[in-house]
Each structure stands twice: as structure tokens, then as C-alpha cells.
Amino acid sequence: MTVYSLVDMPRLAADGVRNAARAEAAGLHRYMVAQVERADCVAVLAVVADRVPRIELATTVMAIQSTLPQHVAQQARTLNQISDGRFTLGLGASHEPIAVGVLGLEWDRPYRHMVEYLDAVLPLLADQRVDVDGTKVSHHTEIDVPGPAPRVMLAAMGPRMLALARDRTEGTVLAFTGPRTIENYVRPTIGEDAMVSAAVGVCVTADVDDARRRIREELAIYPALPSYRAMVEREGIADMMDLVAVGRPDAVRAELARYAAAGADEIGIEILGTPEETEQAWKMIEEGLD
Fold this sequence. Notes:
The protein is of the alpha/beta class and 290 residues long. It has a domain at 156-290: TIM Barrel, CATH 3.20.20. It has eleven helices and twelve strands. It has helices at 13-25, 41-51, 69-82, 96-102, 110-127, 159-168, 179-190, 208-218, 226-235, 249-262, 275-287, and strands at residues 3-8, 30-33, 56-59, 62-63, 87-92, 129-132, 139-142, 151-155, 171-175, 195-204, 245-247, 266-271. The strands form two sheets. The protein has an eight-stranded parallel β-barrel, surrounded by seven helices. A two-stranded antiparallel sheet has the order 6-7. Strand 2 (30-33), helix 2 (41-51) and strand 3 (56-59) form a beta-alpha-beta unit. The radius of gyration is 18 Å and the shape is globular.
């Protein structure tokens, strides 16, 4: 059975608490916060974990190029401690234009970097100690954060990264990956037992053309990122906007149902649009998505 969750990018921690509480009341499975140029995802989730008692929590996702395994393991175990075991750590490689052009970081062998990052962070999460040397990541350290180890998921699009997600984590977190690609490529590659969580942008509106124009401007950076372009090509569409569910509630529900039918275990709804469209999306969620 497919579950529905909320993907959020709040500017204020208070907005995160409000949105998480509303998602919990609406019966959504998980509250997921993206690592973007807004309120820090870990800090927001720490506040939410303390104030919203039942909904599952996750990062979606933290970039390995700009974080250290020890610090991430400490943050993840602390979040799982605060939330009584509700937290899932979503990890992923950054994108070269962002890592190099925005953050001034090195971009080299992202798959090898991810393998070695997991070699360091997974023992820290599970046993709170690690002793490993790699070409990209070396760690010799211990931490002391009581409580259960959090689950881990991996943002994965290429076949090797999907296999890594299958073999070493709970599964994959997807963005801008359509239902045909999930059914014909992601699910066969990652297998039936791994979790597939697909983020889908949603805008509930009667003026589809105007909404698509506005959202295209908001999402202008994404078509320039090679991994997302590859997913658009796999889906057999010309326009990334075709991966955003825009329209009246029944049309949006029908589009989300395509992801469920394709094999997504979780659909992370990212609400887009004006304040009025945002409220319409919430009403759709609260009325039920099936």
C-alpha cells in the first residue's frame, strides 16, 4: 500500500511545526524536510520532533559533499532520540553545478564518494564507532548519543547508486522521476523489497496554464542539472513541468495514483503555488488522496 507524505522547505521553523502538525492531523505518513537555502533541515526537524508527537520524520536529502559522516551521525542519532525512533536519514550526492559553482567544492567520483561515505556513516549510526580509510572519506572516531539507530535512505538515479541504495540502505528517495521511469527502470533495478519514495510537486488550481508558467520560473534551476535531465529523457517527455501535478483536485489525485500504480511505496507531496493554491492543496489532502 502506498503512503503519502509531505515534502517541505520552510523558511521559518514555526512554519515547519505548523505544516508537520497539519500533515499529522491529515493522516500523512511522514514529514520530510529538504536541505535547501532556507531554514536548516536538521534544526527544523529537531523542533518538529519535540512538538509534533506521531508523524514520521526525514531529511530529503542531506548532501554528502558538504557534510561530514561524524557530524551527520550525531545529528541523525540526536533527531532519532528526540523523536523516539521516528527519524530516517536521507542522504544523497549533490549536483556538480551546485557543489562546484555555488559551494566551491571538489566534484570527483560521486559514486565512490558515496560508497566511502556510507562506509563511515553507517557504522557510526549503528555502533557509534568507525575506523576506516578511503580515497575520499577517512574516519577514526567514536560518538556517544544514546538511543536507537535511525533508518537511512539514499537519493539514487543511476543504476550503480540504485544498487547501493538497495544493498546498504532502506531504499531510494526520488525527485523529478516520473511513473514510467519508476515502473520500467527504478523498481526493476532496485528490486521489490527496497522502498521507493517519490517526491511529486503539486499545485491545485483552476488556471493550469498560469500555474505552469509560474512554477516553471520557480523550478528554473532543475532542468540544468544533468541527473534530472536524464530522468526526463527516461520518462519520454520534453518538459520537466510534465512531472508536476497541476490542476483541479481530481486531476491531481489521478496523477498521484499513477505513481502508486508504478510501484512507489511513498509519495512525498511538495505543495507549490500561491497561498490560495497552497490552501486548496491542503484541502485536497485533508479530504483524502485515494
